[in-house]
Amino acid sequence: MIVLASAGLGGGADQECAQLVEQGRIGSLDGAPEYSFTEINSIAVTESGTVYVADAHESSIREFGADGRFVRWIGREGEGPGEFRSIAGVSVLPDGRLAAWDRGNRRITVFSTDGVYEQAIRTEGVNPPYPFVDRAFLTDSAGRYYLRIFANPPSLAPDQSDMATVQYGYLRLSPDGTVLDTITAPKAMPRGLAEPIVIHTRAGHRSPFPEEVLDALSPFGHLVAGHNATYAFSILDPAGRIEVEQEGFQPVEVKAEERAEWRARVAFAERRSRISFRDVPTRKPAYRDLWVDLDGRIWVHRYSEAVDTGEPIPELWLDYLEGDEPRITWAEPSLYDVYSADGRVLYCVQAPADAEVVTSRGSLVWAILRGAFDEEYVVGWRIE
Predict the structure, then answer these.
(1) How far is CA 315 from each of CA 17, 139, 312, rounded to the nearest angstrom?
(2) How far apart are CA 90 and CA 154, in angstroms?
(3) DSSP H or E segment with residue 265
(4) If you average pLDDT over every residue of the chain, what do you get?
(5) Whole-angstrom Cα distance, residue 90 to residue 108?
(6) Is the pLDDT of residue 295 over 80?
(7) Is residue 68 classed as helix, strand or coil in its secondary structure?
(8) 121 near 108, Cβ under 8 Å?
């Protein structure tokens, strides 16, 4: 089945999109420690609005009520029952219980809705190395667990050509922890030996417009995947594969001044690292990311026309170091096209430039937002 998306999507920054109206935020620059975040790496939200937050530099999970008030710490550092060494992701099971993937202890830990330890599920089927990526751990509507893995792990040799053939997948486990199978993402398209540079911004990692295969897991247990060279993706539902393609898609041109800034940054990175990186293209791919929300809707984070802000875009850590890296002043609006679970186009959404949108349910959207001093907040918005 092929679904042709509305030609109205994929427009420029002046396209009218749904608005996000803030409903509340969790976090503080100088407040109590339970409201101070260092590096949030996972957020889980229940149907009632309870929010669980995992910070990469902590061995506990924080629970907040729907009103944003702190409720409790869950777990602590260690190797015993209910303890963690390295939390790589949190997710809510269909019955409301909390599950956490502890990469350090190589187990999934389950807590009751009251934050009480219930059980640990060993993940013996997952062998290092583990990919350090977003959405490393998820659950589905049947209560099964999914761990992001290397389907064909890269070698330990510092050879970039090896990374061009890396294939990711998800290990699927039953509710009792039995390994069921591996869902494999499509293989990456051949792209030569060089990788793009990466800069770390407040809204996540950014690279100069690489063409790549992207995939995301649906809460219904199947993948959504696409190669972003064109505006198309596949809903890989075993009950019936759906191909979604945007009719009349035209790629966004990389402006000459924008490309010059990125090329200067690439040249600097090559001099510093003595590694060859990919050149900056003259046209942008269709989208930089895609993910599936808690209702099964597909969010496509598309590339769009950049605007010269006149100031360097904020980059984590770099803003506090004295260096001579050429800076990027061109920034894109953060635009998402949202599709139903069966590929029908719904609407577009524009998010704040410094926000990393991470999940959504119903008319609500949650994101990680960085402030002027790189402090982090969990922000909830309503789509209007």
Answers:
(1) 27, 32, 8
(2) 26
(3) helix 256-273
(4) 89
(5) 9
(6) yes
(7) coil
(8) yes
